C-alpha cells in the first residue's frame, strides 16, 4: 500500500509533470504558467515530507529500528495525518473561495455543481483510484514476481505508469495545447492530494477496515520523495518550463526507478 | 540549552512567521514583502544548517556515535562558530551600510544611537533573552516533568511559546497593519540571529563560564531545523504571503512538536 | 579520484562562484545575471545529487554497509551514469540550439568552430583537467601526508584551489567587469559538468582502463554536495548577487573544509 502511495507521489511529480513539460516544450517552446498553480502544492508537499520523515526518524533514531513500530508511532502517524488533512482542507477552502482574498478578483466562472458535491466527488474519486491501484498490484503480483520484480518496485512503477494514466493523458494533452497551468495543477496537485489526503485518510481509516497502517516509510521511499519534491520545486520556481526541464525530471525518475529495482525485498 | 536554541530557531520560523502570515493574510489578503528582507536570512539559515549538520555528521559517521564527542569535535564546533559569527557580522555591516551598495540608494533615516552602541545593545539583549529562557526552563522543570514532558520537548515548546513572546507580539502586530516586510525581518531575522550569533557565542564563551558546549545537535533537532528552513525558504521565495501559507507553517510546527513530544529522554 | 570530483563540485560552487560574487559585489555592488544561466545548472546539480545519493543509500540501507559494494551497485552506478550523461547531452543540445525554442530568438553569433569540434574539445579538455588534478594529488601526496592531511582533505582542497585555477581566474575577472552571467556560467556550469559528464564518464570508462569505479560517495561528500547545491540554489534564485552572498558561500566552504580536515582516514 505504501509503495503505491510513494509511486503515485513521485510518478505524478516526475513522470506526469516531466512528460507534460517535455512534450509541451517540444511542441510549444518555453511555456509559462501561473506560479501559484505550482507553488502552493510545492509547499504542501514539503509539509507532507515532514509528515513522512518525522515518524520514520523517531522510529529509527529513538526506538532503534524501522521495524520496532511501537504503539507510540501509530499515535504519531494518526496525529500527523489529522494535521495534514486539516491543512489540505484549508487549501481547498483557499482554492474554492476566491473572494477570501481581496487582492485576487474572482473570475466570472459558473460552477457545474455545488461545492459540497464537488468535494465529496473529489475525495471519493481519489480514494477509489488508490484502492483500484492496490487491487491492480495484487492481481499483477504473480506475473511481476515471475519477472523478478519486488513488490516495492511493482508498486512504484506500475502505479506510476498505469494507476495515474488519467493524470498522464489529461496533463500531457493540456501541456500540448499550451495550458501548462492546468498541466501543473493536475500533476503536482495530484501528488499533493495523494500525500495530504489519501495517505492520511488511509492511516486514519485503516484500523476500522484492516490492520493499522503507519506513516513509517522506508529510507528509500523518503529519499525518493524528498529528491522529487526538491527538484520539482526548483523547476517550477521561475514559472516557466521547457523540454530540457521535462527531460531532467524524466531522468530523475529513471535513476530512482533503477534504484528501486535493485533493492532486495 | 541546545533544546532552547532549536526551539527558538524553529519557533521563530514556523510559529512567529506562520502566525504573522496567517493573521496578516486573514485581515489583509495576499501580502507582499521585500524579498531581501526574507531572502538574506534564509541563506544565513542554510549556512547555520551546515554549521549544525557537519559536527553531528562527523561525530556520527566518523567516530561512531553522537555520544563520542572527542576533543576534535569541540575544535570543529569552535571553528564553525567563528565562521558563523564572522558571516553574521558581515550581514550586519551589509544591513547598516546602505552606501556600500551603489544600486540601493540610502534612505533619509536618522539613527537614534550610534552604530557601536546599537550593536552592543543588540548582542546583549539577545544573549540575555536566551539566558532568561534557560532560567525559565530550569524553574519550570519540576512542573513539566510532572506533566510527563521531556526536557527536549520543554525546551522546544516553552521557549517557542514563552521565550519569543516579544517577537510574536511585534511580528503579528506588524503583519496585521500590513507591514509584512517588518514581520519577516523580526521572525526570520530572529531565527538567523539565534543560529548565527547566540549559538556560536555560547559555544565560544562556554569554556570560560561552565562546561564546554559543542554544536552537536541530535538528529531530530537537525531534521526539524532543516525542514523548517526549507519550508520557509519555499514560502518566502515569491515575496508574497497569504493565510494558507501561514497555516502550512503552523501545521509543520504541530507535526514537529508532536514528534518531539513522543521522543523518549 | 572521488575526493577530486567532490572537491571540484563544491569548489566551483562555493569558492569560485562565492569569490566571483564577493569581488564582483565589492567592486560593482548588487549584480544582476540571467537566471537561466544559473537556474538550469542548478536543476542539473540536483539530478547529480540524486545520482550520488541513490547508490550510496542502496549500499548503506539495503546491503548493510558502504563497504559492501556488491556487483549490483556497479550496475546501478553505470545505469545512473548513462542517465546523467544523456541529460547533460540534452542540456548541450538545448544550449547550442537556440532555434529549438521559438520563444527565445537566436542571437547574431558566429561560431569560431563547428559544433562537433567544440563538443569534442570540451569533453577532452574537462577529462584532461580531471586526470591532471589526479596526477597532481598523487604527486603531492607525500608532502600532504607529512603535513597531516588525509587524502580526502587533499582531494577536496587541492583540487578546489589548484585544479580549478582557470575557472577561478576567468570567473572572478568576468564578475569584476560586471559580467556576472558569464561568471555564473563558468562556475556553476563547471560544477554541473564535473557531476554530469566527468564523473559518469569515469564510471563508464574505468573498467577499460583500471579497476571499476562506482558512484558510491561517502556520507560527508554527499552531505557537502547537498548543502552546497541547496545554498547556491537559494543564492542564485533571485537573479542577483552581492558581496554578502559571496561571503556566505565562502563561509560555507570554510565550514565544510574544516569538517573534511578532521575526518580520520
Description of the structure:
The structure is a homotrimer of 265-residue chains. The first copy, chain A, is 78% helix and 2% strand. The first copy, chain A, is mainly alpha-helical and 265 residues long. A two-stranded antiparallel sheet of chain A has the order 1-2. The model of chain A is unreliable at 99-109 (pLDDT under 50). Chains in contact: A-B, A-C, B-C. At the A-B interface, helix 2 and helix 3 of A face helix 8 and helix 9 of B.
Offer a few descriptive terms:
homotrimer, 265 residues, mainly alpha, 9 helices
Summarize the structure.
The structure is a homotrimer of 265-residue chains. The first copy, chain A, has a two-stranded antiparallel sheet with strand order 1-2.
